[in-house]
């Protein structure tokens, strides 16, 4: 599973989606590549109060 590494939500999502699309494009060129799937992840803090949704992908 690949998830964001930048705290800024807009920039983090943009970078993650670029990486996801790179994997998808590479998959069109060769069978020896990951077949990634885009997912939406909901992070919940340990006390259950704060939630945040971010993109990720499975490889």
Give the strand order of the largest sheet, numbering strands 1, 2, ... along the chain: 1-3-2
**Biggest β-sheet description:** 3 strands, antiparallel
What is the number of independent domains?
A: 1
Gyration radius from CA atoms, angstroms: 13 Å
- Count of separate DSSP helical elements: 1
List its traits.
59 residues, alpha+beta, 1 helix, elongated, 3-stranded antiparallel sheet, single chain
Describe the protein:
With 59 residues, the chain is of the alpha+beta class. It has one domain (2-58). It has one helix spanning 9-29; strands at residues 2-3, 37-44, 51-58. A hairpin with a 6-residue loop joins strand 2 (37-44) and strand 3. It starts with a strand and ends with a strand.
Short description:
This protein has 59 residues and is of the alpha+beta class. Helix content is 36%, strand content 31%. The chain has one domain.
Give the topology.
Blueprint: E1 2-3, H1 9-29, E2 37-44, E3 51-58
Antiparallel strand pairs: 1-3, 2-3
């Amino acid at each position: 599973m690949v998830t964001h590494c930048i705290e800024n939500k807009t920039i983090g999502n943009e970078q993650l989606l670029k990486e996801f699309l790179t994997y998808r494009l590479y998959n069109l060129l060769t069978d020896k590549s990951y077949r990634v799937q885009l997912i939406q992840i909901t992070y919940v803090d340990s006390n259950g109060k704060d939630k945040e949704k971010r993109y990720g992908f499975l490889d």
